[in-house]
Design brief:
The chain is an alpha/beta fold. The protein has a domain of 121 residues: 2-Layer Sandwich (Nucleotidyltransferase, domain 5). Helix content is 32%, strand content 13%. It has a five-stranded mixed β-sheet. Helix 2 runs parallel beside helix 3. It is elongated, with a radius of gyration of 41 Å.
Length: 197
């Protein structure tokens, strides 16, 4: 057969344009062992758990005396009463409120200095009992603000009291803080209403 060669093979197509002379890089298999990283993570986690202090909840610690269910008689002259009203106003009086000893209005920023002044009076020094009476519908943030002011007043009060020496032992006198939260009675509300008029 003349001229019939190569009829059984497919025709070879020629590529057009420039041919790339770059050789393709062979891909190498890659694997990462995670075991050491997991070990280090757990070691760091345990380290930080043991070395950092846990955040304490934001609460106020209150210690109740063992006789808290018993009635305790106190002198009226040793009482410092604070009344917090629904609208956030503060009133205070010492002893028993009367015409001679009226209930007085006080601002929040003056409460600390008043607490220091009354606690350091010579006749009631280290014996004054703070009574905090709160109207039932008073706002919680105002209650906390009063307690904060009273706590801030404790630092200078304690410093002043511990400067004195106990006559029997000769050691510094220990601060005896006396504080109570009491319900507001009807007669308290009436006296305050009379003051507002």
């Amino acid at each position: 057969m003349a001229g019939g060669g190569g009829g059984l093979t497919p025709p070879v197509r020629q590529k057009r344009g420039r041919q790339s002379r770059r050789k393709k890089k062979a891909r190498i298999g890659f694997s990462l062992d995670m075991t050491p990283l997991v070990d280090i993570t757990f070691l760091l986690l345990t380290f930080f758990m043991f070395t950092t202090t846990m955040l304490k909840p934001q609460i106020m610690e209150m210690k109740l005396p063992p006789e808290w269910l018993q009635d305790v008689e106190v002198k009226a002259s040793e009482l410092f009463t604070i009344n917090l009203m629904e609208d956030g106003t503060l009133f205070y009086y010492t002893g028993i409120a009367s015409a001679d000893n009226p209930i007085k209005k006080i601002a929040f920023d003056k409460l600390k200095s008043k607490a220091i002044e009354l606690n350091l009076k010579p006749n009631v020094k280290n014996r004054l009992i703070t009574v905090f009476k709160i109207e039932e519908s008073a706002k919680y943030d105002k209650v906390i603000k009063v307690l904060d002011e009273l706590n801030l007043a404790e630092v200078p009060i304690t410093e002043a009291i511990t400067k004195d020496k106990d006559p029997e032992t000769g050691e510094p006198v220990k601060r005896k803080r006396k504080f109570t939260i009491a319900p507001m009675r009807e007669d308290d509300l009436k006296k305050i209403e009379e003051l507002k008029k």
